[in-house]
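Table S2 (continued). Query chain:
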Amino acid sequence: MARVELVISDEDQERFVHQARREGMSLDAWLLDAARERIEAGRSVMRLESPEDLWALFHGCNEMDEIDEPDLSPR
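Corresponding output:
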């Protein structure tokens, strides 16, 4: 198991500790949970790292255009 030292402002420490206690967690557990949530949120973002990724996005958008959409124009 690794040990990590963080340098944070006193104001942030107070806010983080307060929020962790409100959620019934230690500061360590709360920070780890926040980091894990950040990683998971990043996984749900589509990353365009190659021309093939971009073409896949365009193809997906074209397929969405083929779906019948309701007519929302004023009558």
